[in-house]
Amino acid sequence: MSPRILINGAKGRMGQAVAAAAKEMNLTVSGAVDAGDDLGAALAGCDVVVDFSSHAATAALLESAVARGKPVVLGTTGHGADEKKRLLLLAGRVPCVWAGNFSVGVNLLFALTRRASAVLGSDYDAEVVEMHHRFKKDAPSGTAARLLEIILEERKLGAEALRHGREGITGERTPTEVGIHALRGGDVVGDHTVMFAALGERLELTHKASDRGIFARGALRAACWVVGQPPGVYDMQDVLGLK
Ligand code: NAD
Prior knowledge:
The protein is α/β, with parallel strands linked by helices. Helices cover 37% and strands 25% of the residues.
């Protein structure tokens, strides 16, 4: 039987895309809440909550879900590193799929980026460029943050290696820095390019999303998967069996 799904952040762009995708996939939506609604009551009547709201709302959402033992699919981005560490402890107390990007193509981009970072050493300058619609409130995107994490992990670098944009007399690029550039404009759903540039050649891995339905369908696939899993934090690689 398909799980009863609660949508949190229901009035937003993603909340509406999740509702549309649920209809298309014949899944049951038991409730749809947004800021100011009674989240606790809505949680009581669902089997899993799918959240695309605001990073400021994540702690309260997780606390309510933990109190009621409800699985969570968390799509919201924009958490700071320390904030995320605290939230992960909370999220691990219920079955939770937490992904900065629910698209299948992007999850493959993560795997390709890991492989390219390993094969192309520090001689290849790594830079990440992302572009999103003019309404996006956080930068860099959760997907770009994950791509950067993968590059830093493979190159054994810390967060101090990141260069968020460049301005003024920056000096020559060092081999240990990783650049990140966030473009904003129009209605772009989400573009990500990971670039590895050496003297004489450049490899670019690019993903372009043209319809937020891909994230909604992925999040609903995660919702069906996570119900019945043991408590813990999972990602889309787990859901898709890419690990
Ligand atoms: P949006 O601004 O269109 O919608 C956000 C909605 O959340 C709004 O309706 C807002 O009223 C609501 N909200 C704010 N505070 C709330 C609260 N306390 N409780 C319940 N609802 C609350 O934004 P969006 O484009 O739909 O994106 C939402 C989030 O999802 C962002 O963080 C975005 O980066 C992220 N996102 C993630 C993925 C992914 O695949 N993981 C894909 C797209 C967007």
